[in-house]
Structure prediction request, 135 residues.
Amino acid sequence: MLGPIDNRVASVCADGAYDREGVYEAAHAQGQGRHVRVLIPRRRDAQLNPRPSAALKERNRNIRSIRGLGRREWHKLSGYSTRSIVENAIYRYKTIIGRGMRSRTLAGQRAEVQLACRVLNTMTGLGMPDSYRVG
Prediction:
């Protein structure tokens, strides 16, 4: 999935199915020599790598953090929980706008996505109720 990206990647967030050494290595390579923050929750049987590469040090850090904080607290403190907000936005986009692109050129696709996002944001702004925490 990182192959088509031309720019340097600063962070990668994925679910536990992607907790593999190759994913960390690919993310590190896409960082073009700079640190890449990789937020992937560990598998239940995950072990620390005794001699980690630069990329796998990030995985070891995630494993230690989840063990120390617990999975739920790690989700909150690491910023991983924002992934669900993004997934929900993509779901809304695909449901309302559609799954496919209509434009054939990259420039046209960029304009199409920007316009669709503006439409969704306008709809959200008009239809979201004001909510207040009680208790």
Remarks:
- The CA atoms of residues 16 and 43 lie 6 Å apart.
- Strands lie at 11-13, 37-39.
- The mean pLDDT is 86.
